[in-house]
Amino acid sequence: MLVLSVALGLVTSQVNHDLSRPNIIFILADDIGYGDLSCYGATKVKTPHLDELAATGVKFTDAHSAATVCTPTRYALMTGEYSFRRKPGAGILSGEAPLSIHSDQPTWPKMMQSMGYRTAVVGKWHLGLGTGKTDYNSTIAPGPREVGFDESFIIPATGDRVPCVFVENGKVAGYDPSDPIQVSYQEKIGNEPTGKENPELLKLKPVQGHLGTIVNGVSRIGFMTGGKAARWVDEDIADRITSKAVGFIRQNRSHPFFLYFALHDVHAPQLPNKRFWGKSQCGLRGDTISELDWSVGEILKTLESMGLRKNTIVVFSSDNGAVDQDGYADERENLNGHAVNGVLRGAKYSLYEGGHRVPMLISWPAKTPKGRISDALVTQSDFFASTAKLLGANLGVGASPDGVANEGALFDGAASKRKNLVHHLGGFGSALAYREGNYVLVPKGKGWELFDVAKDLEQKVDLAAKMPEKVSDMVKKLAVVSGR
User: Fold this and answer.
1) Residue 315 — φ and ψ, nearest 5°?
2) Are 323 and 391 a contacting pair, CB within 8 Å?
3) Nearest 5°: phi and psi at 58?
4) Which residues is 422 bridged to in the sheet?
5) 167-168 and 439-444 beta bridge pairing
């Protein structure tokens, strides 16, 4: 890769200051809501590093995740394709699911590679690994490398799902061949304690099916045995992945890089490092947000120390809206009035605004306006097409089929080129909502609700009965756009 970069003239002797080749870091938080950050109005928790991003760039008030749950959003972010179009990427994947992105499919990181960038993914993956049932006892492929990442250090699925190990460049980090890993989402394997059978061993009280194998005092979705030396400690996850992300930046300071840093915070189980306990006024969730903000701060500090901050685009967003309890009863305790989604109606798993309207901050000191608040309609599905346009890349046939090249809105604070947007609940064949202009059409039972979110952000006033022609028109347009 270094030889290729030199041949393309993309390596400088010191630091990359070519404004036509900015470094790009996309930080995707997990389950962070519209009301979770102090720069979006939170008062019970402070997020100074994220506030700094807002102060040095653009804060978006009408930004949306590609779906209301994990995997579909990540699929759309990587491919620029609505996740409801392709079954493997449409639903929440287990820790034994195969790769949901086809190896020959155009992706954002592949495009970045084609432009001479060094690419890495660090953190939560949740896009499947391998073919068939994932085998964690050998080199795992296809995976991040086939999607377009030169380097990877990932959580295979989620923190509340087995297997509870990191995978680095296709191999389980710290793997011991004498202790092979087995995973099952159908039935218990081995003789390790479970949340259902051994509740006395737990440090978090599980709800909603989190009754499988106990790892680090936490019962998970699914069952695993083996891999004891490789298992993570939840309280150290943020430190591990942040260290890997910082290391990638340091190693690649001399030529353009693309880092997809997918935080685990604040997804369940919420178990921040002890140094963050009590940092907020809203319990475990607030303390975990403080840890998340620290991770962002470490990235910014590293960029500053290496002279890279000015010409690095740093994006922060969330994979869906927040939910105040998602697997463990302790998450809801001591919220102390903190509203995870602010004034928005709904939450994760919902097609109301609280399910998909998310924080988004973009800071590129060399170019983006400072401290601008933008009400442009933007979505994460557009980053593939938008960065391609920014870099002068040719997307080619079939690339980013649902993405809009919206680089002006994203990087300059200009008006949005996106005029409509399909919101995906998550799951193949699952419900869709449709946004056009200020109106959003939301399914309800066998009918529809219609809201003007410019005048009624809380979605209290259903206009469907008063505007039947508008509803009919938007239903027809949704059918055309979605292909359903």
Assistant:
1) -110, 135
2) no
3) -115, 130
4) 434
5) unpaired
Closest CA to 351 of 431, 418, 427, 428: 431
d(CA 353, CA 440): 9
Q: What residues does 24 pair with on adjacent strands?
A: 258, 313
Q: Which of 224, 176, 253 is nearest to 12 (CA)?
A: 253
Distance CA 160, CA 444 (A): 31
User: Which tokens belong to 415?
Assistant: 């008006």
Q: What are the 10-residue block averages of pLDDT along the chain, 484 residues in total?
A: 31 59 98 98 98 98 97 98 94 97 96 98 98 97 98 98 98 98 97 97 91 98 98 98 98 97 97 98 97 98 98 98 91 91 98 98 96 97 98 94 97 94 94 98 97 98 98 98 95
Angle among Cα 343, 348, 354 to the nearest 5 degrees reads 25
- Euclidean distance between the first and the last CA atom of the chain, given in angstroms as a whole number: 43
Q: What span, in angstroms and rounded, lies between the C-alpha atoms of 62 and 445?
A: 26
- Rounded to 5 degrees, φ, ψ at 242 are -65, -40
Domains and CATH numbers, the chain: 22-176+225-418 (3.40.720.10), 432-482 (3.30.1120.10)
